[in-house]
Q: What sequence folds into this?
């Protein structure tokens, strides 16, 4: 009897347990299926982020276009950037970033049964381009580019595909020589052509005979060089209607000339007795500040006088007619930090990043040097190259970072962006020319130590310098080639999402 | 020995048997109650799981579509970047770009397919219960997605939407600035019929709008 009761109990409990387990299992299976889809979606999303990171490093259209009729996705010429020798951007694995379909740009095998496949395709603003590679807007803002990303995530049989269109927009980074403090022309040895100089305090030792060309980036600081658009930050052009005082109209220079502006004073050397300022004869500043100087001819308007100052009036509509200000943004710390952080990421990705904890001096060496690879500037450098040196602990005195790169590309021009944080940058010893930008940043607001950028040798720089500290110039400063700037410097553009959608089927 | 078995006087007395039977009845009755309870629990649990499965699938579909809410015509000369035609605590209407032409259309003819999608709660014709409705046509025809929604009143339909800014904390109230909405919180309550008292299950999800949050 007891045995029978025990058997009945066991059977009943077994039935109860099985019943409970059945719908728990069903619920679990549903959750697993839903999670597979969710995981596949997250992988696809990660692929889109991977492509965005790639665009931060390289937004050159020719690297992501459809090259020619042999391309499996060839549409028409409107989808191709001309240039038979332009190479496509190469991802880590597989083909190139621009390929779609079965040869999609890059493939990441995350784990068994988990995969990401992603491609990046430049979208053309050409009106004749095929609809499949046409930009989403008929008229794109100046300098803005569009890229279509297709990312496929696979997780244990579940697949999700997303499409993202990203746009790259030029950042508001100053394309000029800009110092938050002083610019010293080092006894007049420096020459400046086609690029303006701006100082938060003084510009000293200017030899006006050594300033030439028109400002390629900012024109007359109000009307942009395209002759159509206007500067966003400065509402007053440098004078052009009336010839400057003491200058014959035959010697008059256009207001777009490369200029020098200081919030405090501009002083010249050597001083001469010629008072009319023609032909760029230097003369000592009269000491009243602030004074605006333009080009190689002294500018001192008669009526009305215009002075240079930082923006104290807010919106451009409130700008006094007698004041000219920086044609670029100078007090956006958030934007500036974003750009610096982007450059740091790019340098890390390119294996050009140095973080120095001991405060010792550092030399950026030639690409052929036998030293540690991390100390060498790339042998083949482009405008997308970023070399980043960062000191920890804000050492005082500031250690020197010397840029001494003799041999790089076949044309003997080093290219890229050199960034130094909490250290001085010295390019005096270099011999090869440089095309790009030099940037120095000070993480400490106390001005102790004051950081400096020195180019007192014969380095020919085609680009600009942006220094949180003092600049000492030697050598020659020239503007970017128009074509070089058109391709975009990494970090000088932001990457933002234009649209996102999930692809079904 | 056989004679001994047949002639033996040993055994259970009547009172002993009666007591035994009583005890057995009590034990078996208890066992039956346990069995019956387990059946009820199984039945209720099964119904609930099924209802939750359906609700979860419906919610996931809604989540995927809301997440991909697309600007109505961002590429136009005068860009139209709004995502929601309707955004109230109990209903929502938006669009998904299905054909890749970068805008939302819902032609009357059905070609290309209607790209506007709307969700709310309704009572299907001939039904005594309420269902989650999806509208994906120019004619506005409702299709039931999930049934047995726990409808209480017009203001508490069992389906709720809350709209938040990018920080996920600041709520955008109805009538506010639609362009600030970057996240939608969807709440869904279903009913599981059971005697003597029905059970309810609440599902909630936060949906980040991909065309706003980045």
A:
């Amino acid at each position: 009897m007891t045995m029978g009761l025990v058997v009945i109990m066991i059977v009943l409990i077994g039935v109860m347990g099985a019943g409970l387990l059945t719908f728990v299992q069903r619920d679990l299976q549903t959750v697993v299926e839903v999670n597979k889809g969710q995981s596949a979606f997250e992988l696809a999303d990660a692929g889109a982020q991977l492509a965005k990171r790639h665009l931060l490093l390289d937004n050159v259209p020719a690297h992501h276009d459809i090259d020619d009729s042999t391309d499996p996705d060839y549409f028409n010429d409107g989808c191709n950037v001309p240039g038979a020798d332009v190479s496509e951007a190469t991802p880590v694995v597989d083909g190139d970033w621009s390929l779609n379909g079965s040869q999609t740009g890059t493939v990441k095998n995350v784990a068994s049964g988990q995969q990401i496949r992603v491609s990046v395709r430049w979208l053309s603003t050409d009106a004749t381009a095929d609809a499949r590679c046409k930009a989403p807007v008929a008229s794109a803002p100046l300098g803005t580019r569009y890229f279509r990303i297709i990312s496929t995530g696979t997780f244990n049989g579940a697949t999700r595909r997303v499409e993202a269109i990203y746009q790259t927009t030029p950042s508001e980074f100053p394309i000029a020589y800009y110092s938050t403090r002083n610019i010293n022309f080092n006894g007049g040895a420096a020459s400046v052509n086609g690029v303006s100089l701006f100082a938060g305090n003084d510009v000293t030792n200017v030899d006006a005979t050594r300033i030439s060309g028109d400002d390629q980036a900012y024109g007359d600081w109000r009307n942009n060089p395209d002759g159509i658009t206007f500067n966003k930050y400065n509402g007053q052009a440098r004078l052009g209607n009336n010839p400057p005082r003491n200058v014959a109209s035959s010697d008059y220079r256009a207001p777009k000339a490369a200029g020098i502006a200081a919030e405090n004073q501009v002083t010249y050397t050597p001083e001469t007795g010629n008072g009319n300022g023609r032909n760029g004869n230097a003369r000592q500043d009269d000491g009243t500040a602030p004074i605006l100087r333009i080009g190689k001819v002294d500018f001192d308007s008669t009526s009305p006088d215009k002075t240079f100052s930082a923006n104290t009036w807010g919106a451009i509509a409130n700008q006094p007619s007698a004041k000219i200000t920086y044609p670029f943004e100078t007090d956006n710390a958030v934007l500036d930090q974003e750009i610096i952080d982007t450059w740091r990421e790019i340098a890390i990705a390119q294996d050009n990043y140095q973080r120095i904890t001991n405060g010792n001096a550092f030399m950026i060496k030639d690409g052929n040097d036998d030293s540690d690879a991390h100390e060498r500037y790339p042998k083949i450098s482009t405008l997308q190259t970023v070399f980043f040196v960062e000191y920890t602990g804000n050492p005082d005195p500031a250690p020197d970072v010397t840029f001494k790169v003799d041999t790089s590309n076949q044309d003997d021009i080093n290219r890229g962006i050199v960034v130094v944080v909490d250290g001085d940058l010295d390019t005096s010893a270099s011999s090869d020319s440089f095309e790009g930008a030099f940037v120095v940043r000070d993480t400490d607001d106390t001005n102790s130590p004051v950081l400096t950028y020195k180019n007192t040798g014969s380095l020919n720089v085609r680009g600009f310098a942006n220094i949180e500290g003092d600049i000492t110039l030697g050598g020659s400063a020239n503007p970017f080639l128009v074509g070089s700037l058109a391709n975009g410097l990494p970090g000088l553009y932001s990457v933002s999402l234009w649209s996102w959608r999930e692809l079904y089927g | 020995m056989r004679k001994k078995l047949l002639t033996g006087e040993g055994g259970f007395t009547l009172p002993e048997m009666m007591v035994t039977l009583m005890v057995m009845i009590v034990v078996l009755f208890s066992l039956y109650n346990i069995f019956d309870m387990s059946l009820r629990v199984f039945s209720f649990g099964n119904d609930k799981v099924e209802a939750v499965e359906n609700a979860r699938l419906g919610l996931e579909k809604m989540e995927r579509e809301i997440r991909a809410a697309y600007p109505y015509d961002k590429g136009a000369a005068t860009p139209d970047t709004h995502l929601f035609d309707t955004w109230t605590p109990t209903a929502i209407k938006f669009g998904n770009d299905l054909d890749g032409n970068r805008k939302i259309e819902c032609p009357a003819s059905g070609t290309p397919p209607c790209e506007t999608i709307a969700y709310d709660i309704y009572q299907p014709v001939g039904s005594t219960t309420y269902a989650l409705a999806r509208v994906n046509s120019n004619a506005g025809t409702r299709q039931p997605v999930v049934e047995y929604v726990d409808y209480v009143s017009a203001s508490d339909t069992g389906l709720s939407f809350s709209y938040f800014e990018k920080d996920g904390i600041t709520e955008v109230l109805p009538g506010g600035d639609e362009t600030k909405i970057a996240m939608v919180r969807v709440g869904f309550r279903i009913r599981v019929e059971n005697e003597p008292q029905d059970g309810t299950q609440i599902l909630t999800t936060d949906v980040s709008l991909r065309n706003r949050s980045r």
